[in-house]
């Protein structure tokens, strides 16, 4: 049958499918990027808007939404090349735009890696992903966005929204890009052999330390909010958590940069560890507090997902179970026991416990990667060839030390530079909301509320609530008083 494509367009169609393009890999990478994007919007938007007190639902959800949009623009204008471009410093790339057609349509490339042998060191180019640079830019963009959004979890319920709008691009530029280049973009930790399969250090450790540090500088929530801060919608909170869990298939499954066997292994290990961790956290709640907590189960799910992230495609299934047991118990202990006894942790108001669920779980996962990484699986993951975990002997013990040192660098850099960013922002804008806004919440900050429920004797004011159409509201009496609905 003759082609239905007009002759004038056939050449363009051929050009859009160059010989090096692998359609399967490209399709999976775009799907994985979409899954990670859905973790943020609407996943964390829903989760944040539901897990907080009702008066902070809009503000919390909006902080996540704004960060996603701001990161996208900053990423393509300068931050992508700071993360994956030419080296400026051993831990930082040169800034530049990733916007031009010639750049975005060319084949994606990864940095060179170093293979270690007894007789010396040999520099070799890594295999190049068989999809356009545009795919790589977008895939890494959604990772950058979710990192900043995770950090926001430490600050809900009191950070000045204008200060947050200024903070986002600064933290992305001076904190996130450093971790990415150092570990994934060809920086010194990358060449040294520190293993971070999908962001245990780059994303979770950095967001946990960044959030905890920022929470110190912003200060705590109001006393009333710290004493009682119930979620306003537990069922919707579960929906957001579900999007986060299933979206992690793209989070970890997309990092081999191909639809290959390692990708499948990463997805399976991710779900094994998350399920195990959720169950362990829930059992600990029942044993020590007599009731299974829904919020606790979500926290256990998250710590399992975070812990397996640096190891997802590098460990076997049995190791994923062990990591799930540890990720469901170690962060549980730091959050439920240590947090209450350590003055520093108790003094800093980390709203959603991001320090425990991401920093502790991420560092734990990175260390466990150095213990359980299987040599054959390591060889499938390009940046860590010729590496092995401690349980497999050989150089595995050194790998644990590398993991510890790599995590220490991420902690130190983010604690110091995040503090500097907060001090700079504070020179321009107050980091904390004024007391009047802290007392009222969303209505004072945004002029909007999460739920338009007028059935509790509340007065309807058409001047204030003018978004509603006239046919659904009662006319305001001529005397100027409001009418109850």
Automatic annotation (TrEMBL):
Keywords assigned: Ammonia transport, Membrane, Transmembrane, Transmembrane helix, Transport
Annotated Polar residues bias: 475-485
GO cellular component, one term: plasma membrane
Location in the cell: Cell membrane
Recorded coiled-coil stretches: none
Topology with respect to the bilayer: Multi-pass membrane protein
Region (Disordered) residue spans: 464-485
Pfam families membership: Ammonium_transp (PF00909)
InterPro entries: Ammonium/urea_transptr, Ammonium_transpt, Ammonium_transpt_CS, NH4_transpt_AmtB-like_dom
A GO term, aspect molecular function: ammonium channel activity
Primary site of residence: membrane
Family label: Belongs to the ammonia transporter channel (TC 1.A.11.2) family.
The protein's name in its UniProt record: Ammonium transporter
Protein source organism: Vitis rotundifolia
């Amino acid at each position: 049958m003759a082609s239905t494509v007009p002759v004038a367009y056939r050449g363009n169609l051929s050009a859009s499918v160059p010989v090096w393009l692998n359609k399967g890999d490209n399709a999976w990478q775009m799907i994985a990027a979409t899954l990670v994007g859905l973790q943020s919007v609407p996943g964390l938007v829903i989760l944040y808007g539901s897990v907080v007190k009702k008066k902070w639902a809009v503000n919390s959800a909006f902080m996540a939404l704004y960060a996603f949009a701001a990161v996208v623009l900053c990423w393509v204008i300068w931050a992508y090349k700071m993360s994956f471009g030419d080296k400026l410093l051993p831990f930082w790339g040169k800034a530049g735009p990733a916007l031009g057609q010639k750049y975005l349509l060319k084949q994606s490339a990864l940095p060179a890696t170093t293979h270690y042998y007894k007789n010396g060191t040999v520099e070799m180019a890594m295999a190049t992903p068989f999809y356009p640079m545009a795919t790589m830019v977008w895939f890494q963009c959604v990772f950058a966005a979710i990192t900043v959004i995770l950090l926001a979890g430490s600050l809900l319920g009191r950070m000045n929204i204008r200060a947050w709008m200024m903070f986002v691009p600064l933290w992305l530029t001076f904190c996130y890009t450093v971790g990415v280049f150092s570990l994934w973009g060809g920086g010194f930790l990358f060449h040294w052999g520190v293993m971070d399969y999908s962001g245990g250090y780059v994303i979770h450790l950095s967001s946990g330390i960044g959030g905890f540090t920022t929470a110190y500088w912003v200060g705590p929530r109001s006393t009333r909010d710290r004493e009682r801060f119930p979620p306003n919608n537990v069922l919707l909170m579960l929906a957001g958590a579900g999007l986060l869990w299933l979206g992690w298939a793209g989070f970890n499954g997309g990092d081999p940069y191909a639809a290959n066997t390692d990708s499948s292994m990463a997805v399976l290990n991710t779900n094994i560890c998350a399920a195990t961790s959720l169950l362990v956290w829930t059992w600990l709640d029942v044993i020590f507090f007599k009731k299974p907590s829904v919020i606790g189960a979500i926290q256990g799910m998250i710590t399992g997902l975070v812990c397996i992230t640096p190891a997802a495609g590098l460990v076997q299934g049995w190791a994923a179970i062990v990591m799930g047991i540890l990720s469901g118990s170690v962060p549980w202990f730091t959050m439920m026991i240590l947090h209450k006894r350590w003055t520093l942790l108790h003094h800093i108001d980390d709203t959603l416990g991001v320090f425990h669920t991401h920093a502790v779980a991420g560092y734990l996962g990175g260390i466990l990667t150095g213990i359980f990484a299987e040599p054959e699986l390591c060889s499938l993951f390009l940046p860590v060839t010729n590496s092995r975990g401690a349980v497999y002997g050989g150089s595995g013990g050194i790998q644990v030390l590398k993991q510890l040192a790599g995590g220490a660098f991420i902690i130190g850099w983010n604690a110091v530079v995040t503090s500097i960013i907060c001090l700079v922002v504070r020179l321009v804008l107050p980091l904390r909301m004024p007391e009047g806004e802290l007392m009222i919440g969303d209505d004072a900050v945004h002029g909007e509320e999460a739920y338009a429920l007028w059935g509790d004797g509340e007065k309807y004011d058409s001047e204030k609530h003018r978004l509603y159409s006239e046919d659904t509201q009662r006319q305001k009496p001529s005397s100027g008083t409001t009418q109850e609905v």
